[in-house]
Amino acid sequence: AQSVTQLGSHVSVSEGALVLLRCNYSSSVPPYLFWYVQYPNQGLQLLLKYTSAATLVKGINGFEAEFKKSETSFHLTKPSAHMSDAAEYFCAVKYRDDKIIFGKGTRLHILP
Amino acid sequence: NAGVTQTPKFRVLKTGQSMTLLCAQDMNHEYMYWYRQDPGMGLRLIHYSVGEGTTAKGEVPDGYNVSRLKKQNFLLGLESAAPSQTSVYFCASRRTAQETQYFGPGTRLLVL
Fold first, then answer.
1. Helix (H, G, I), strand (E, B), or coil: what is residue B106?
2. What's B57's DSSP letter?
3. How far apart are CA B96 and CA B20, in angstroms?
4. Beta-carbon neighbour count of residue A82 at 10 Å?
5. Between residues B96 and B107, which one has the greater pLDDT?
6. What is the mean pLDDT of residues A14-18?
7. DSSP 8-class letter at B98
8. Distances from the Cα of A62 to the Cα of A90, A106, B112, angstroms
9. How many Cβ atoms sit within 10 Å of the Cβ of residue B83?
10. Confidence (pLDDT) at A91
11. Which pLDDT does position B99 carry in this prediction?
12. Residues of B at the A interface (Cβ-Cβ below 8 Å)?
């Protein structure tokens, strides 16, 4: 079955610390992969996407993600967290049948 | 260019009532999607459309119907609302050649 797993529904990091949000997908064929961010009471905004080009993808606001086929993972990182990064983050996968499936989300808390 | 708009923004229904949510996009996108967002569940795909006159089921289609009579509009219908359909509903659209989805601001639905 098609699925996206985000490990950790809540993640807390100190301001200035490394941010690591985990995403694993189920697929035998490399899919398209996305990270979206949602601020309170807003819709989703695209952070970055992987579309079979470079495995290390850079996005907006200093975020990046690395596609690892052997691990079926697409983890999101940021070297130094900022208070404005506090939000909910969603990993999503597009499969060949044009469905785009989302993970359950990870809420990122930034500690002062 | 308004992007993706959703009508209404908020609605309260009684159990058994029917209603239609409207999603409109002015970007000439071929693909359109309806998701529901519930706490701890992320976004779950209800139905989607790959073009005018076509629709397909997503992960959680039961209790919902959709129509795509015009390319720019994607309607989500609830024939007989149930409390389990209390949720925030998001519409999204994208081009065929691009994978990025553009999201509307959401519709908050409360079924009593």
1. coil
2. E
3. 26
4. 13
5. B107
6. 97
7. -
8. 16, 18, 43
9. 11
10. 95
11. 77
12. 31, 33, 35, 40-45, 48, 50, 56, 58-59, 90, 92, 99-101, 103-106
Distances (CA, A) of A24 to A69, A72, A92, B53: 10, 6, 10, 34
Q: Model confidence at A31, in pLDDT bands (50, 70, 90)?
A: confident
Selected for mutation to probe chain A from B60, B101, B107, B108 (highest A CB count within 10 Å) is B101
Residues of A with Cβ-Cβ distance to B58 under 8 angstroms: 99
pLDDT at residue A66 is higher than 90: yes
Q: How sure is the predictor about B96, in pLDDT bands with cuts at 50, 70 and 90?
A: confident
Are β-strands A4-7 and B87-94 bridged in parallel, bridged antiparallel, or unpaired?
Answer: unpaired
CB of A107 within 8 Å of a chain B CB? The answer is no
Picking from A100, A103, A107, the residue whose alpha carbon sits closest to that of residue A40 is A107
Give, in degrees to the nearest 5, the angle at Cα B33 between B95 and A90: 95
- Give the pair of three-digit tokens for residue B13: 């229904």
Sheet-wide strand order for B4-7: B4-7, B19-25, B73-78, B65-67
Instruction: Examine the pLDDT at A17 and tell me if it is beyond 70.
Output: yes
Residue A71: pLDDT over 80: yes
Confidence (pLDDT) at B8: 96
